[in-house]
Amino acid sequence: MQSYIQKQLGEKIKSFRKIKGLSQEKLAEEIGIATNTLSSIERGNAFMTAQTLEKIIDIFNVTPQELFTFTNNITDEDKYTYILRKLDFVKSDSDKLSMIYNILKSMS
Predict the structure, then answer these.
(1) Per the CATH hierarchy, to which homologous superfamily does domain 1-72 belong?
(2) 22-58 in b/e burial notation, b at 16+ Cβ within 10 A?
(3) d(CA 34, CA 42)
(4) Would the pTM count as exceeding 0.70?
């Protein structure tokens, strides 16, 4: 039976995977699990080991709190802090930096 946490966590992992531009196959390879296992995790039909969870956190460069926060009621301060932290993460990626620059420039 699917639990609320499994379903929400699976959706969050899928969302982070898509944001990062990874296929299920590539992410599964990076964390050392079978693709069908990752698929089950993303659908909320399976849970993962602590080691797999740690690898996912490292690959997505998120905190456990970010991964396990399932509410959409995020404060503006939390959003701002998250954006700043992610900007620091992309500063060495010219393509992502240009994309963010263009998005922000279009807002003015």
Answers:
(1) lambda repressor-like DNA-binding domains (1.10.260.40)
(2) bebeebbeebebeeeebbbbbebebebeeebbebbee
(3) 13
(4) no
